[in-house]
Amino acid sequence: MASPFELISTFSYRIIQAQIDAWPGAYGKSYVLFSNVSICLDKIQRSMAVANQPFLTDIKIIRERARMHIEQGAVTEGYMADRENVINLLNAALATEIVCVLRYKRHYYMADGLSASIAKAEFLEHAQQEQQHADWLAERIVQLGGAPNFSPEGLLSRSHAEYVEGETLREMIKEDLIAERIAIDSYREIASYLGEKDPTSRRIIEDILAQEEEHADDMAGLLKGLDQMQGSGG
């Protein structure tokens, strides 16, 4: 932090010098210099007062707010987001994860052939990770006082990603890659919307987003490898 003397030295030096030069006589010059130094010291005192203020809200206020509406659990008076809107967004993400679990599971069981062994392992791993994402989202929805929507009715309409089965191994990998890319864009927008209004939900979405990006890279790699094998007659 700059010292008072550094602050004084940087306080509109040219303006002060111009004012001093404009005043005739030693008394006038001294008066101008004294006035400007007084202004500098006042600014320093104000900035130090602001710097000494605590960053957090007064603890008494936090304690009082914590006792209000205790039935809402984790949702305190300081929660800044539109809770119902956040719950709806998380339920849409939950539906997306469920659809991804189902699609990866089907691809795991349906993929066959010599070139399918690596893909099957990826399909199974991704299905398990998507299920974990669904669990994280469901837990957060409950924390916010909502109800996770696991109903099969309307699942596809709630999901951002589509459920496309694919006939060949290449089609399966391609559809999984497309679904991951859809989820990546959707989750990026949700995280941006949540911002600092709901940092807990945002971090959950960001953790899921990071893993979806890994999934997309995995599927892109499988697709490239499969095309190379087929191109070489493998």
Keywords for this entry:
9 helices, 234 residues, mainly alpha, 72% helix, 2 domains, disordered N terminus, Ferritin, 0% strand
**Helical proportion, percent range:** over 70%
Give a quick account of the main beta sheet: strands, pairing sense, barrel closure.
none
- Rounded to an integer in angstroms, the radius of gyration calculated over CA atoms is 30 Å
Secondary structure class reads mainly alpha
N-C termini distance: 67 Å
Quote the CATH topology of the largest domain. Ferritin
DSSP strand tally: 0
CATH architecture of the largest domain, please?
A: Up-down Bundle
CATH uppermost class of the largest domain: Mainly Alpha
- Tally of contiguous helical segments: 9
List segments where confidence is low: pLDDT < 50 over at least 5 consecutive residues. 3-11
What is the string of SSEs from the N terminus onward? Answer: HHHHHHHHH
CATH-level-4 superfamily name of the largest domain: Ferritin, core subunit, four-helix bundle
Strand content: under 5%
Task: Note the overall shape.
Answer: elongated
Overall structural domain count: 2
The residue-averaged pLDDT reads 81
Verbal overview:
The protein has 234 residues and is an all-alpha fold. It folds into two domains: 4-51, no CATH class; 77-231, Up-down Bundle (Ferritin). Helices cover 72% and strands 0% of the residues. It is built from nine helices and no strands. The longest helix has 33 residues, at 199-231. It is elongated, with a radius of gyration of 30 Å. The protein starts with a helix and ends with a helix.
